[in-house]
Amino acid sequence: MTEIIGDALVDMDGVIADAHEGFRREMIDRYPDVHAQYDVGDSYFPLEAYAPEDQEAALEVLRSEDFFANLAPMEGMLEGWQQLVSIGLNPRICSAPFPPSANCIEQKIAWLEREIVPTFGRRVVDRALFTAHKDECSGSILIDDNPKLGTVRAMWRWVVYDHMYNRDAPMPRIMGWRDPLLQPIVSGVALASRDFSHSRPGQKGTTSACGESYRIVGQLG
After folding, report:
1. Which residues contact 207 (CB under 8 A, 6 or more apart)?
2. How far apart are CA 5 and CA 128, in angstroms?
3. Which of 34, 89, 125, 194 lies at a 20 to 30 A Cα distance from 188?
4. How far apart, in Å, are the Cα atoms of 218 and each of 3, 24, 116, 175?
């Protein structure tokens, strides 16, 4: 039986859901005459790829009522989720809401129900965390694409999900869910995180959740 290491917090946009490609396609469909100044995949926040006068159109795409719900999954996402389980981690969604989108969390729930729940069960949704303060969430690791992630207070260790815009982040990284080195990289970081947490007096490791700013989907009603 596989030893349980702890929770692997997993971001959504840019990690399991292909937000940049979804945004690119929506902009072409809805605003074919509005062009980015550079590839939207080169920026963490795709809005930045557009001239100031075009950013309102780009924002309209991001805050539409079905943008997050309709994103395609990242290649190999389900396989990667299973790999996390296989090495003794409990994958747990940890995703920041997008404030300009009034129903962003509900859209993300719908995405999870369509893409992950049929394979891994309702528990994926019931344990999901939605917060802008990921450093207040407990876990062994956080897999995230944010190039400027706050980690000062974090109990987890950061594993970067590789994109062009985060290549300067000096952390262990995976090159996608089908990275042949995913298991050794992730398990090594997770075990180091566990050993570190056990060495801290009073540290409860992965048993708590987040600060007051988070929302557990199971409590949404």
Report:
1. 138
2. 19
3. 125
4. 27, 32, 16, 32
Question: Is the CB of residue 159 less than 8 Å from the CB of residue 172?
Answer: yes
Q: Which two tokens stand for residue 119?
A: 């394979």
Give the per-residue pLDDT at 3.
74
Q: Do the bridges between strand 157-161 and strand 141-144 make them parallel or antiparallel, or are there none, so unpaired?
A: parallel
Distant-in-sequence, close-in-space partners of 151: CB < 8 Å, separation ≥ 6: 135, 158
Q: Mind listing the pLDDT tens digit for each residue in 166-214? A: 999 989 999 999 999 999 999 999 998 765 554 444 444 333 455 433 4
Among residues of the chain, what percentage have pLDDT more than 70? 86
Identify which of 126, 132, 114, 115 has the alpha carbon closest to the alpha carbon of residue 90. Answer: 126
For position 196, what pLDDT does the model report?
53
Whole-model pTM: value is: 0.89
Nearest-angstrom CA–CA distance, 36 and 48: 9
Lateral strand order in the sheet of 141-144: 173-174, 157-161, 141-144, 6-10, 89-95, 129-130, 215-216
Which among 51, 4, 48, 53 is positioned nearest to 23, based on CA atoms? 48
How would DSSP label each residue in 24-85? HHHHHHH-TT---SS-GGGSSSGGGGS-GGGHHHHHHHHTSTTTTTTPPBPTTHHHHHHHHH
